[in-house]
Amino acid sequence: MGVDTLLDLWARRCTDKPFLFAMGSGFTKLKAPLIWYDILHVMEVLSQIPEARKQPAVEEMAQIINEKADAEDCFTPESIWMDWRGWDFGQKREPSQWLTFLATRILQRFSLVSQ
Question: How many domains does the structure of the chain reveal?
């Protein structure tokens, strides 16, 4: 099952670096849109599966995202691709409305933010 594979990759993230599926420091950087293999994209999928949301590893990933919110519960991109520089998520200077929407939607599934 895909959930089990992702959870296994997360559990082995400090020791194994499978080609294209490593979960190193770049994996946890917040970025949009959801076209990369990263924490937001993985959590967008896992957070929609009730059984997956109960897994400690998934809760840990949700907490990592939650801790990246600023004082106003907004999220600022931590990694960008310059081709997206015209979009609010294509810069790292200020919070992005789109990235905040993506992160908040995930966190709402864990009741970490209000609806």
Answer: 1
For residue 100, what is the DSSP state? H
78: Cβ contacts below 8 Å, ≥ 6 apart? 29, 30, 31, 68, 92
Residue 114 in any domain: the answer is no
- Please report how the helices 39-46 and 2-11 are oriented relative to each other, as an axis angle in degrees rounded to 10: 140
43 falls within a domain? yes
pLDDT per position as a tens digit, 56-106: 999 999 999 999 999 999 999 999 888 888 898 999 999 999 999 999 999
Q: Cα–Cα distance between 77 and 80 in angstroms, integer?
A: 7
Q: Classify residue 113: in a domain, yes or no.
A: no
13-43: pLDDT as tens digits: 878 776 767 777 888 999 999 988 899 999 9
Which amino acid is residue 28, in one-letter code?
Answer: T
